[in-house]
Design a protein that fits this description.
Blueprint (H helix, E strand, L loop, with lengths): L11 E3 L4 E3 L1 H19 L7 E6 L3 H12 L3 E8 L3 H18 L3 E5 H5 L3 H8 L3 H20 L3 E3 L4 H13 L3 H6 L3 E2 L7 E3 L7 H11 L15 H15 L3 H12 L2 H9 L5 E2 L6 E2 L5 H8 L33
Parallel strand pairs: 3-4, 3-6, 4-5, 6-8
Antiparallel strand pairs: 1-2, 7-8, 9-10
Helix pairs in contact: 1-9, 2-9, 5-6, 7-10, 7-11
Length: about 325
């Protein structure tokens, strides 16, 4: 097996490209794919401050590494979810990486800062653990970006992730979600842009990137994810991809090119009628957003400055914190 570029011994094959790569040219391919995604979708402009949501897994550490090497001003944000040893281990991987590269890392800890963990929140709110986790992450990613003055929030969603989510949304015709399933969710009303620079790279490729780059990451799946439909959708698409390489790429990017616009009007309509939460200012169709309700039901507390205002007070200037496209309370 020889490298497509230099004909030296290859270390990885990328079947959807019908190509093999040596280490150096595999790294170049990864950098080129991220650069192409950033340019194609207008993800990050020169000089913008970038906040990368890092979990300790391969995807988030890979995208942070690739963006830093590309010259972006990218800091990290780690959210401690209180999932026992798993959270302790994943946080350790993030801290070691940030320290080794001399990068800035901000940490938010759910149990310490908000008084609940994902398991408690899931039981109290009668949500699946992944639902409570996703709600918490969306809210706190937005909050950290606004508080820190960042222009862009980066997540490590890769091609496999996006294809699997799209598959599930199409199977159930979740049209509102289909209208928001984009590589870029634009900034609105002061909220940061949310972007996914890894959409042109597969999960296997981000894992190979970390291994070859010497980036240690947590290998185990989150113990709370057992039974998650998303994993089943990934397995189904992996089986198709094995016999028809490039299917995931064509499915996802074909949707973006040919179908996503048909669902965006409905997604836009879902943003209407929202108002700032009385407690934290996040967008919500009612008086209190889903995150603050989750904190209350889980027996947690909001940090100073986020407590509900006194009766009769004007809690938030209307319009000061209006909806980001994917942070709407369900």
């Amino acid at each position: 097996m020889k490298c497509r570029v230099c004909r030296e011994p290859a270390v990885i094959d990328v079947r959807r490209q019908n190509a093999n790569y040596c280490v150096a040219h595999f790294f170049r391919m990864c950098r080129d794919q991220v650069a192409k995604a950033v340019e194609q979708f207008g993800m990050i402009a020169p000089g913008e401050r970038v906040l990368v949501a890092v979990s300790g897994g391969k995807d988030s550490l890979a995208v942070w590494d690739l963006l830093v090497d590309a010259g972006y001003d990218a800091d990290g944000l780690y959210l401690g979810l209180g999932i026992g040893d798993y959270s302790d281990e994943s946080g350790a991987y993030v801290r070691r990486y940030a320290k080794a590269r001399g990068l800035t890392l901000t940490e938010v800890d759910l149990p310490d800062d908000y008084g609940y963990d994902i398991q408690t929140g899931s039981r109290a709110a009668r949500r699946a653990p992944c639902s409570a986790c996703g709600l918490s992450k969306r809210h706190l990613f937005d909050k950290a970006a606004i508080d820190g003055g960042y222009d862009v929030v980066v997540t490590g969603h890769n091609l496999d992730d996006e294809a699997a989510v799209l598959f599930g949304n199409v199977l159930r015709w979740q049209t509102g979600y289909l209208g928001r399933q984009l590589p870029v969710l634009p900034a609105r009303h002061g909220f940061p842009r949310k972007v996914k620079p890894l959409v042109r790279l597969s999960e296997r490729e981000t894992a190979a990137y970390c291994v070859l780059k010497g980036i240690d990451y947590i290998v185990d799946e989150c113990p709370m994810a057992k039974g998650n439909r998303h994993l089943g959708y990934k397995e189904a698409l992996n089986a198709i991809e094995a016999t028809s390489p490039g299917t995931k790429f064509d499915f996802y990017f074909g949707f973006l090119a040919r179908a996503s616009a048909a669902f965006q009007a409905e997604a836009e309509a879902e943003q209407e009628g929202l108002r700032p939460c009385r407690s934290c200012g996040a967008p919500t169709p009612g008086e209190i957003c889903a995150f603050c309700r989750l904190v209350e039901r889980a027996g947690g507390t909001l940090p100073p400055g986020e407590e509900p205002p006194a009766a009769g007070a004007v809690p938030v200037t209307l319009g000061a914190r209006l909806p980001s496209p994917d942070a709407v309370s369900p």
